[in-house]
Amino acid sequence: MTSTSTRIVCVAGARPNYMKIKPVMDALERRGAEVTLVHTGQHYDESMNDVFFRDLGIRPPDRYLGAGSGTHAEQTGRVMAAFEPLLAELAPDAVVVVGDINSTLACALVTAKAGPLLAHVEAGLRSRDWSMPEEVNRVATDRVSDYLLAPSDDAAANLRSEGYRDDQIHVVGNVMIDTLFANLERARQSDVLDRYGLTRGGYGLVTLHRPANVDDPTVLRGLLKALAEIAGRCPLLLPVHPRAAGRLAELGVPGGIRLVPAAGYLDFIALQDAARVVLTDSGGVQEETTALGVPCVTLRENTERPVTVEQGTNVLAGTDPGRIVATVHRVLDRPPTARCPGLWDGRASERIAGVLLDGGSARTRPRPTDLVPHGAAAGAGTRPPR
Ligand code: UD1
Fold it and tell me: CA-CA distance, 296 to 277, in Å (whole number)?
């Protein structure tokens, strides 16, 4: 592809997509590409959507699919059914999808069958945990993508081990960190600490939304027990995801844990930046805390982002209450030293624009009409081990 008049559809659907798509759109437009922003509508609340568009300065979507909530099949199916005719109408040269949510997979599947080239930003991340819907979305999206844009060397190694061709894999760095660095000074101007009566280094920040943690009352009760014990040493602030709100209200939240509404982007970055420790089951938060150098304890048994453990500030604690408490005490006593992984330098989206528009391997990229099935690559086409 060349930048002049290249038409690219950029897809976003839910909260963790917005900070990833924004720098990619900007980089493509700076290079002269014609970008259409398609919003699938997977997230739609003010607190999950609108505030991010405002904070990040993302223009209103050019097209809105209004998919909304539902089961995985309903949500994925609604996005696919709405995206297919839109893609036929727009007939872009390429589609860019980011991350691992249901909208990512839905638009990837439609694109792969319709013909435009497909680029996956954040390719190659693997938790090897097939109970996570996001793992299914990641593996399947990579499988039908032409450009696999990996955030780190470990992600690229995963792709190579699954049989993808070297000319499909591009280690470009982490676009989420582009947005973090671009907005950090603005975030530090936020008055969120004053509003909540917090001081820098004087609290722990908690996020919980993963179905495995919040949909099962036994697991959630155990997590709350651990949080209550930790709050005895370090008061905790928990901005609430809508998925978790009902369950938390049912079970009741112990003292020392303060529930607040889900935060916007700038406020949430400010809260992470000033926290003594962050406890989370999110993927992106593991990365942002590593880039900020803030200790992170992940309330999951695995991570698709091992670089945050190997090089960053992340420690996996699982969901056993005793282990969580012991891990947090250890981290508070001796915060992990860390460095920011290579290419997490604020310029990942520039590299992505380069890959898509300058050629490089893209010069040899087959045209949409004669795409080589990935099964043609050695080893590809076999289902990864489960
Ligand atoms: C989705 C993503 C997850 C991501 C998370 C970030 C998938 C499979 N999961 O999970 O990877 O980390 O977003 O938030 O795509 N709801 C609202 N308002 C909204 C959106 C959702 O109230 O704007 C409620 C609905 O009751 C909905 C529930 O939250 O049923 C879950 O939303 P959904 O988009 O299905 O998944 P998330 O848990 O948000």
Answer: 6
Provide the whole-model pTM. 0.93
Cα of 200 vs centre of ligand 1, distance in Å, is 30
Calculate ∠ Cα 306-308-309, nearest 5°. 70
The owner of tokens 């001081």 is 199
**What H or E segment, with its residue span, contains residue 149?**
strand 147-150
To the nearest 10 degrees (0 to 180), the angle between helices 321-333 and 217-231 is 30
Q: How far does the centroid of ligand 1 lie from the alpha carbon of residue 243, in Å?
A: 7
pLDDT digits (tens, 9 = 90+) for 97-140: 999 999 999 999 999 999 999 999 999 999 999 999 999 999 99
Which position has the token pair 């991010």? 52
Atom 15 of ligand 1, nearest CA residue: 101
Test site for ligand 1: of 18, 65, 80, 101, most ligand atoms within 8 A of the Cβ: 101
The span from the CA of 175 to the CA of 41, in Å, is 22
Q: CB of 133 closer than 6 A to ligand 1?
A: yes
Compute the distance between CA of residue 21 and CA of residue 120 in angstroms, rounded to an integer.
11
Check pocket membership of 40 for ligand 1, CB cut-off 6 A: no
Sketch out the chain's domains with CATH numbers.
Answer: 7-174+344-357 (3.40.50.2000), 188-333 (3.40.50.2000)
| Structural tokens at position 266 | 């700038």
Q: What is the mean pLDDT of residues 206-217?
A: 95
Q: Is residue 76 lining ligand 1, measured as CB closer than 6 Å?
A: no
What are the DSSP calls for 204-247, one per residue?
EEEE---HHHHTSHHHHHHHHHHHHHHHTTS-EEEEEPHHHHHH
16 lines ligand 1 (CB under 6 A): yes
Convert the pLDDT of each residue in 216-234 to its tens digit.
999 999 999 999 999 999 9
**Residues with catalytic annotation?**
209
Residue of 272, 151, 145 lying closest to 201 (CA atoms): 272
